[in-house]
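Lecture notes, unit on binding sites. The following record was shown on slide 14. It pairs a sequence with flavin mononucleotide.
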Amino acid sequence: MANNFNSQYPSIEDLRAKAKKRIPDFAFEYLDGGCNEDVNLNINTSDIRKIQLEPRYLQNYKEADTTTKLFGKEYSAPFGISPVGLQGLMWPNSPEILAKAAFEHNIPFILSTVTTMSIERASELTQGNAWFQLYNPVEDEVRNDILKRAEVAECPVLVLLCDVPTFGYRPRDIRNGLALPPKMSAKNIFQVLGKPSWALNTLKHGVPTFETLKPYTPEGLNLKQLGKFMDKTFSGKLNAEKIKPIRDKWKGKLVLKGVSAPRDVEDAIKMGFDGVILSNHGGRQLDAAQSTISTLPNIANRYGDKIEIMMDSGLRSGPDIARTMAAGAKFTFMGRSFMYGTAALGNKGGDHTITMLRTQFKQVMDQLCCEKVEELPNHFILN
Ligand SMILES: Cc1cc2nc3c(=O)[nH]c(=O)nc-3n(C[C@H](O)[C@H](O)[C@H](O)COP(=O)(O)O)c2cc1C
């Protein structure tokens, strides 16, 4: 294992436990929680883990090669970093840490519209390799300006998010005053005082702000006003009419994130998307939804030759990546896993988490005697 690997944290669960101790409760709960009763959050992972894989020990086998081609580029492994909003709240500088680590390890990093690093900075840190996730702005002018900036920053892939037609109902965030509009309560301030390394780092880096959105945000808003402004400026509601001008303008690859229904994938193909990320926002929006993995084999079977089928929501380990790839995904993404990494280990968190997941994933491939990522479906056992 590489030098930058910290052997005290050999699993995502170890990083999660450390993150919980190190950052204020309201920040940890914002990251960790699902919506309503957390049913969707929990089945995302438990359903992935129902998948079993069959090793083939007597094959003429050399060594696993984890490299994976996607949209004409070769990545070092079939996983990347999902877009996460407000990353600087969980650990200051975490989008910078993750973008840098993703670039060094040659895996994709997706920047959220509402995170605490700008498109331009993401591009600089990844030498033009960062993908950008767009929350659809209500005003065409704002949308066009953001698209232009993403193009100038050489983002190869634009990801349109469709699974936030309304805010998720998240009891923890409501209790903590993090729902929109947000409030800073005495309880939250008390929690900050109990986490000195988080507080000191936050002081050092300044209050996290929505960097990409700065040019469109009036100055001097308090938190409550900012919440209202964001609510008014962005609409998660997408339809053919809103997607068409984006497809017409965007010359790079276009990916739809947040679908789970076969009919939505069929529409995405008709609308000219190059890929879809099957995703339910990590169980943060519709508690009564299916797990993403339960929709994957059917969708991959029906549409896998027409559009790139990727998946996130629920993966927490190398075996989970292997199970998902065996079930038909072309590529996988994770959100919380990487944020647990930076919240637990700060500057070393991105490097550590990627190294760990890649090591775990390669071990599974070697154990299966599977040389190539695209051969993983040969090891899938239908239950
Ligand atoms: C704290 C948090 C914030 C998120 N913010 C965004 C966002 O701004 N844009 C987006 O497309 N998805 C967002 N997501 C969803 C992730 O991109 C991803 O779909 C999800 O985390 C995958 O599930 P996992 O955490 O189980 O890996 C967020 C997820 C979390 C946990």
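Take-home: The longest strand covers residues 253-259.
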